[in-house]
Amino acid sequence: MNTEKRLVHLDALRGIAAMLVVIDHFVERTPLNASPFFTYLNLGQMGVVIFFVLSGMVIPYSLKADSSLLGFATSRIFRLYPAYWFSIALAVLSNHFFLSTTTSLRDILINMTMLQSLFSTSNLFGVYWTLIIELAFYIFCALLSGAGLLKKQKIRFIVSIVLLILALLLSILRFHLEKKLTVAVPLCMSIMFFGSLWRDVSLGSADQKTHKYSFIWLTLFFVLLVPICLLAYNKDYGHGENATAYLLSYTGGLVFTLVTTLFFRRHISGLIMMGYISYSMYLVHPFLLEWMSSKVDMASSFNISAFLVYLVATGALASATYLLIEKPFLKFGNALRIRITD
Length: 342
What we know:
This protein has 342 residues and is mainly α. The protein has helices spanning 3-6, 8-27, 36-40, 43-65, 69-97, 105-112, 129-146, 153-177, 184-203, 208-232, 243-263, 265-268, 272-276, 278-295, 304-341. The longest helix has 38 residues, at 304-341.
């Protein structure tokens, strides 16, 4: 079985992760969100954790296979930005037509960089918060690759542990200072670097050392996640922070990924098309969510018809975005990368 065929399941799993986010954001606006299940389990957070593990399983290996950092950067830019810029246009339209607010040119331009959090500028769509973490991971991996260290498992293991400890230290400071320090960045990047180790374990090609590193990380993660969540998310800073929900959602997302990549690869491979459109689905669904909110009183009841229309519309718009924007720019970016590396 070749590598590409064996990794088809990762695309399918990415589609599942995107759908969890899409479903969760609809539920959040309905009375269903107050039920015990959704109070203590955030499907969107689970989906994000799955995304991050998958990035760790793919990106470092893409870099190792690419002889040029410039080629890697080129392919990533054309992978991320065109669909992202389209979603920014949707955000502007959403603000104007559904929320009756105007979007400043400054906010648009800064959001277009994907670095808005560095400039204390709000995300035009809330889902953008994960993208800068992805960028940080790419940059970190590129630096390690440039130094000839990315291919060394021990280095990736050490980085994952250091980031996990950093998340714990920041959670302690966040608790004592009562300031919204960014705990999610080192925590999620630690998960990504773990993903780079887990790839070989899940495919059955890991050596004894990789198994050891993965076991140590998992043990520390599940032990440290408890104090991290209790300290960092004991107070609501406006995003519905709930320590128990974060603990269960991070745990659920990671366990789901581990179990699925180990035992259910063939079972989910039929969902590969949903995986292809997962990035577009993640980016465009907030537009359709605002559209549905403008048409239906979501706060009064869970409207199953509205929910199904929302899901179908999201799938349709995501498919169109993938076919008309993502796929052509991916092809162009790959062609440009090949030209750069030749």
